[in-house]
Amino acid sequence: MEARKREGRLSQEDLTQLLGQRGPAIGRYERDEVKPSVDVVKRVAAVLDTTVGYLLGETEDTSVLKDQAMLKRLNDIASFPEQDREHILYTLDAMIKSVKLKSL
Questions:
Q1: What's the mean pLDDT in 45-65?
Q2: How much of the chain is in helix, strand and coil states, percent to nearest 5?
Q3: Cβ atoms 7, 50 nearer than 8 A
Q4: pLDDT tier at 69, thresholds 50, 70, 90
Q5: Could you tell me if 19 and 44 are in contact, meaning their C-beta atoms sit under 8 angstroms apart?
Q6: How far apart are the C-alpha atoms of 16 and 1, rounded to whole Å?
Q7: Three-state SS string across 55-71, please?
Q8: Distance, CA of 26 to CA of 36 (rounded, Å)
Q9: Domains along the sequence of the chain with CATH
Q10: What pLDDT was estimated at residue 5?
């Protein structure tokens, strides 16, 4: 796991112990010999202070959606009726574009 190596402070054995795993579990995960459960991935993300998305290779940013307030907002938006979501996202996209243009 690149996140573990990036931290540079945890050996495979250290991480295994922190997760309550046994034997060479982390090494097997890192070599793609075994896939960890969702619960294990969540615990690994917490220990390494990153996100599940980063561990799964969905993003290069180690802190995307770690902001709980932002995550709550996104969950709220996701729960709204489709038309309301579309209006909110349209407005949000316009605001994001405006901020990006300012920085050019």
A1: 79
A2: 65, 0, 35
A3: no
A4: confident
A5: yes
A6: 12
A7: HCCCCCCCCCCCCHHHH
A8: 9
A9: 2-55 (1.10.260.40), 68-102 (no CATH)
A10: 66
